[in-house]
Design brief:
Thrombin, subunit H, mainly beta, 22-stranded antiparallel beta barrel, 28 strands, about 10% helix, globular
């Protein structure tokens, strides 16, 4: 009995000695393919993952956004970023493509190829070391015939090649004008698409566009029509293997976003790793532009430079010259510049300016030489992960010409505040936030300055109601006019197949051209997703104002791919 017991004890001890390390060994770390954007500067973003998660310089990530309460099928691709610097737990990425304004808390996804590479890397880190077995071919340098044949073996296509997501729909709308008691109808097409690496090239097509097959009389443009014209869509080419980059469609010049949207194109040439020069041209269709005019054309050249380290101090700058024409008649000759300085991810400074060259006697000018026409400076500091502070100064020499019907929507807030303005944004739980701006406008000719303010609250999600909302109120006084507005936007998913959203507001606006005008609007829409591909939408806009008074309804039938 003693011998038998001792044998069993030794056997158990042996199993314990060999098996305990396996039991105590940590499970292999699951490789991450999705990262959260923690900070956004002028042209870079920071991720919450770094070398410990397998990220390395040169990797491309697709940035996606899913609003609270929306189904996964409504995930939108809003841009692409590329890793340019890494730390153990963070990474800095330059913004390569930016369609809808990349923001904090958006998600960046690795491509399929990079995700596989990360998985192999993480596996090798967690695996045990074994002796390597090396085999040699009969020839010291291998068999050239076998190498040549191996080069033609079919390989799986990369996931980002010819990847297409989006929707296309046919829309029918009717407008009932309550002032003239008349009605008009429109038929149109709406497209939202994100197509990458077309036919294996580095051409991408993305954005949103809404067109009309028949138009109303001039002057009958509605609030919905104006908002639809603020979107971007176009083709863009950016290859890591080429010095050339270009794009055309309705888009922003990547190196000078202050020039607003262009219906046209651009071409850039990288003359060095840090310098790009190019040309651009087109019209200005965006009604939110500070110098909006539907008949304006612009042609110009630019040079962009970047230097420094994102982990320390980073600088990017663009300088250029352009000439604009209105109704094909010469209008402006001006120089423009943009500068961005960032220190780590806690501080950034952004500045843009436009300087006109004026000739004596032209457009009523009494002298010749350069004149500052537009100047904007903002300093932003992130005190911690929850509080962001900013200080801005906004100046216009002339009167901004954006469409004032957009004031109540909040799309032109950056143009309403002139002079010095301070702002704060406080992040709250459940993706909510409270924000505000307070400033003082001091215009030439005013006896005293006037106060401007903006207060807002974003409600990320209510668990029991699944509602996302944004409420804001503002009072402003600028060179073009003064007034106040209140607005609210609410959206909710009733189910996986139904989505409802509403937007309403009121604005009181006074300018030198009118004693005063008041307008109220309510805009709502419902979308019904019939299966995985088809959808049906219905919406209406009620607008009551001194200048326009109408009801607009639309019906939308489309296909998702």
């Amino acid at each position: 009995m003693l011998r038998f017991t001792t044998t069993r004890f030794l056997l158990a001890l042996t199993l314990l000695a060999t098996g305990l390390p396996l039991l105590l060994r940590a499970e292999p770390r699951v490789p991450r393919t999705q990262f959260r954007i923690t900070y956004v500067a002028a042209d870079v973003v920071y991720l919450d993952g770094g070398t410990e998660d397998g990220l390395s310089e040169g990797m491309d990530l697709e940035v996606q956004r899913l609003e609270p309460g929306q189904p996964l099928t409504e995930t939108q691709s809003i841009g692409t970023v590329r890793v340019i610097a890494t730390a153990p737990t963070s990474a800095v990425c330059e913004i390569v493509i930016n369609f809808r304004g990349i923001a904090r808390d958006d998600q960046a996804h690795l491509s399929t190829v990079d995700a596989e590479n990360v998985a192999h890397l993480m596996t090798s880190r967690n695996s045990r070391g074994y002796a390597q077995i090396i085999s040699f071919s009969e020839m010291l340098d291998g068999n050239p015939l076998e190498d040549e044949q191996r080069a033609y073996v079919p390989r799986p296509q990369l996931a980002e090649i010819n990847r297409a997501k989006g929707r296309i729909s046919l829309q029918r709308s009717s407008l009932m004008d309550r002032i003239s008691n008349s009605a008009s109808h429109q038929t149109g097409v709406a497209i939202r698409a994100d197509v990458t690496r077309i036919n294996g090239t580095y051409w991408n097509f993305a954005g949103h566009w809404r067109g009309r097959t028949n138009s109303r009389l001039r002057g009958q443009e509605t609030l919905t029509d104006l908002i639809n014209r603020t979107y971007h869509i176009g083709f863009q080419y950016d290859s890591p293997h080429s010095k050339n980059t270009m794009g055309f469609g309705r888009l922003l010049l990547p190196w000078a976003s202050s020039l607003s949207t262009l219906d046209g194109g651009y071409y850039g040439r990288r003359v060095s790793p840090s310098t790009t020069i190019g040309v651009f041209g087109g019209s200005s269709p965006d009604p939110t532009a500070w110098n909006y005019d539907p008949d304006r054309k612009i042609l110009g050249v630019f040079s962009s430079f970047q230097a420094g380290s994102f982990e320390k101090v980073r600088y990017t700058g663009t300088v250029g010259a352009a000439q604009s024409r209105r109704s094909w008649r010469p209008e402006r000759q001006f120089a423009f510049l943009e500068n961005t300085v960032s220190i780590n991810r806690r501080f950034s400074l952004y500045h843009n300016a436009e300087v006109d060259y004026r000739s004596r006697g032209r457009f009523g000018s009494d002298r010749s030489g350069p004149v500052l026409s537009r100047n904007f400076l903002t300093i932003r500091a992130q005190a911690n992960d929850y509080v962001t502070l900013d200080l801005s100064h906004n100046y216009f020499r002339g009167v901004p010409t954006f469409d004032d019907r957009l004031i109540g929507t909040g799309l032109v807030d950056q143009l309403l505040f002139q002079g010095v303005t301070g702002g704060i944004r406080i992040k709250l739980p459940r993706r909510s936030a409270v924000y505000g701006q307070l400033g003082r406008s001091d215009r030439r000719g005013d006896a005293s300055g006037s106060s401007n303010y903006l207060l807002g609250f974003t409600l990320g999600r209510v668990p029991w109601a699944h509602v996302r909302a944004d409420v804001r109120t503002s009072q402003f006084s600028s060179s073009f006019g003064s007034g106040r507005y209140h607005s609210v936007a609410v959206s909710r998913n009733l189910s996986e197949a139904f989505r409802v959203q509403f937007r309403g507001g009121q604005q009181d606006f006074r300018s030198a051209l009118s004693e005063g005008s008041r307008a109220r609007f309510l805009d709502g829409s419902v979308e019904w997703f019939m299966g995985s591909h088809y959808f049906l939408g219905f919406g209406a806009t009620l607008y009551r104002g001194d200048v326009q008074n109408y009801d607009q309804i639309f019906l939308d039938l489309g296909y998702r791919f």
